[in-house]
Amino acid sequence: MVASAALVLIAAAPAPASDELQFWTETPETGHVAKAQTLPDFVDLAAKLSPTVVNVSSEESAEGGNPEGGEFTTPPFGHQRGKSMGSGFIVSHDGYILTNDHVIENPNKVTVTLQNGRTYPAKVVGGDSKTDVALLKINAGDDLPVAPLGNSDDLKVGQWVMAIGNPFGFDHSVTVGVVSAKGRFLPDSVDQFIQTDAQINPGNSGGPLIDLSGGVVGVNTAIYTSTGRSIGIGFAIPINLVKSELSEIRGSGKIKHGWLGVYIQEVTPELAESMELKDVRGALVAEVRKGSPADLAGVKRGDVIVEFDGHPINDRRELPLLVTETPLGKNVTFKIIRDKQPLELRASITEMHPEEVASAGAEPKLSAGVPSSFGLRVQDLNPDLARQLGLDTDSGVMISGIDAGSRGEEVGLQKRDVILEVNRAPVKDVNSFQQALKASGKGSIVLLLVKRDNATLYFALKPEA
Predict the structure, then answer these.
(1) How does residue 19 score in pLDDT terms, banded at 50, 70 and 90?
(2) 168 in helix, strand or coil?
(3) I want to staple 52 with a disulfide (CB 3.0 to 4.6 A). Which of 88, 147, 337, 414 is the partner?
(4) Which of 57, 87, 101, 102 is catalytic?
(5) Active-site residue 311, yes or no?
(6) How far apart (Å, rounded) are the C-alpha atoms in residues 414 and 450?
(7) Mean pLDDT over residues 93-120, rounded?
(8) Which of 276, 242, 21 has the alpha carbon at shortest distance from 150?
(9) Which helix H or strand E contains 274, and what residues bound it?
(10) Model pTM greater than 0.90?
């Protein structure tokens, strides 16, 4: 009886839920079982493309080093006898080779090794540190096999891809995976990367990411890791971005990028609330370079750029990529929000200027400071402090201390930050700073404009509990 009862319980089907109770969606009954899909066969693809992939080694200059650790890292190096090694692939029959700029950064000598073991000295034709692309040239004297360049715009998330490279010096290693995501942003980069779970390790940098049709859709360049080894999150530069630069690099050795002349930051919900913006999107202008296209166009600190040359700006990181890809001399229209009102401005894009290095001079002396709201201790900014900080004004207050766990620490304020404005109103000294905080009223978000090194930043502080 026990066995029989058990059989009845196992065989019994649950009663179907009524329409009123069932709130989920089930797969439709098709009347047949879907045919199982087989995995792709990468054998022919690997055999065809491997001869186009090369090992790139460069002797390190005295100031060279091996970047290790951190969350995001470019993995070019497998150190062997004082050399750094990465990958590349042949893009023309006469010996032009594509790789990452960081693979051959500051080299004394660059050597390329083909799959057949033949080695050639390589000339660095040029490169672009902004997009991390470099072009080499070897004189092999033969009709070299080439890797055809595909169309990265056609990539779909979930589709199969293959990587070939030289991880840890193990030449022509093949790994496979899928496209995990598109349009990924990495710190300090203007690219929108392809994310893949195809294994990428030190030595893979500069190698190709290949789709099932045999076209190169990306240049492998970085991994997300805390150990310096692959954990299945790799990034590749989209090949369509690379193709837009190759002819210019071959012709002039470098890329001339467009320049607008603004320092921007993210529009957070707190900043949007403090500035009474309708939407949490765009690029907040923290500083405008004097004489820049933005300055000549009338852009002001505190403006929010929401559209550039017809392209909406949802994430502030989209703006630098759009600007750098704009042809020099082109007149562009962009839309901003200023004091809650939309405005349209025009600018003529010029060439990007070299980065200026700020010199803060001697370390400023910090006093105990006057306690204020949000866990901040502040002191007057006198001419001596302003000179030590490299400032051209002595109006404002300097943060001399921040309480642990306070609102000020939470938003990222730091010692030596100089507060220039409270709620868009200038502050001259500690007294005017305290008065401005009181005037903001209880329960209101406070908007601070802060000078840090050679940049200005906005911070929105929520009311303290």
Answers:
(1) low
(2) helix
(3) 147
(4) 102
(5) no
(6) 10
(7) 91
(8) 242
(9) helix 269-274
(10) no
